[in-house]
Design goal:
heterodimer, A: 4-stranded parallel beta sheet, B: globular
Chain lengths: 106, 146
C-alpha cells in the first residue's frame, strides 16, 4: 500500500491528523505501507514524531518504509538520527519493487 | 554604527498558523539579507518553527492571541533572531538538552518527542535563553561563512 502525502508540509498544524488517519487505515487494513513523501517540502519535529508513532503502531510484523524524500526531509531525519531506523526508497517505483521482491521471497 | 542594531521586528499573535508563517517570513528575510543559501534558509525556517511552536505549546500552553516578537539583527559575520514572549518560563529556567544520544535499538522506547531541540542545537551556533522583565527571551545565532 502506498500512502501519498499530498500536503507540501507535515508540521504542527497537520501532523496529528496525518498520524490519526494513517493509523485508522492501517488498523483496518493489515498491509505493509510505504509513505510517499515526494510532495513534502517541509517537515518539522511533530512530523518526525508522527512517523515514529506510525512505525511503532505498525509493529514488527509489517513493513513501514519511506519514499521520495526531499532534501529538507532527508536532512531532518539525518540530524535526529531517525534515518537509521527508517528504511527509505528513492521513489514509489523503488518501494513497489522492494515489496514485490519480498513477496517473491516469502 | 552600532554593531547590534535591530534590523527588523516582527510581531504576531500566538497560533500555530501564525508561527508557521513567521518562521517562513524570517527565514526569507535572512535568506535575502544575509545571502545564505537555500538549504541553510530551509534549516533556519525549521529551527524557528520549532522554537516558535514551543512558545505556543509550552510558554502559552496552547493559548491563541498572545504576543510573540521576533527581532532580527544582521552583523558582518553573523545574524541573530531573538524570540520574545510573555508566557511561562522554560523548565528549570534553561533550554532543554535535546539530547540526540538515544538508543536506536530500543525500539519500544524510541522518543516520539524532543526532536525539536535536537534540530535547533544541530543548526544554530548560538542558543541563549533568559527570563527578562517577565518575558522569555530566546536568542538564536548563526555564523556566516566568510
Amino acid at each position: 500500500m502506498i500512502l501519498t502525502v499530498e500536503k507540501p508540509r507535515i508540521d504542527s498544524q497537520i501532523a496529528g491528523v496525518f498520524r490519526d488517519e494513517a493509523e485508522d487505515y492501517l488498523s483496518d487494513n493489515r498491509v505493509d505501507c510505504a509513505v510517499d513523501l515526494s510532495n513534502v517540502r517541509f517537515m518539522d519535529s511533530t512530523g518526525l514524531s508522527s512517523l515514529v508513532s506510525l512505525l511503532k503502531f505498525i509493529g514488527p510484523d509489517r513493513k513501514l518504509e519511506l519514499c521520495g524524500l526531499t532534501p529538507q526531509v532527508t536532512k531532518a531525519l539525518k540530524l535526529t538520527r531517525l534515518d537509521d531506523i527508517f528504511v527509505t526508497r528513492a521513489n514509489v517505483r523503488e518501494a513497489e519493487l522492494a515489496r514485490e521482491a519480498r513477496a517473491a521471497m516469502s | 554604527m552600532n554593531d547590534m542594531s535591530q534590523d527588523a521586528r516582527f510581531s504576531i499573535l500566538s497560533s500555530f498558523e501564525n508561527v508557521a508563517n513567521l518562521a517562513e517570513d524570517v527565514s526569507v528575510l535572512c535568506g535575502n539579507r544575509a545571502e545564505i543559501d537555500e538549504d541553510t534558509a530551509d534549516m533556519l525556517r525549521l529551527c524557528l518553527a520549532e522554537a516558535l511552536n514551543n512558545i505556543v505549546e509550552h510558554a502559552y500552553q496552547g493559548a491563541e492571541g498572545k504576543p510573540i516578537f521576533a527581532d532580527v539583527q544582521f552583523m558582518r559575520d553573523r545574524f541573530e533572531v531573538h524570540l520574545i514572549d510573555e508566557g511561562q518560563p522554560m523548565p528549570q529556567g534553561q533550554v532543554p538538552s535535546g539530547d540526540a544520544d538515544y538508543d536506536l535499538d530500543d525500539f519500544e522506547n524510541l522518543p516520539e518527542g524532543g526532536f525539536g531541540w535536537m534540530l535547533i542545537r544541530s543548526q544554530m551556533d548560538m542558543i541563549e535563553y533568559e527570563r527578562r522583565d517577565g518575558c522569555n527571551v530566546l536568542r538564536l545565532g548563526k555564523e556566516l561563512e566568510a
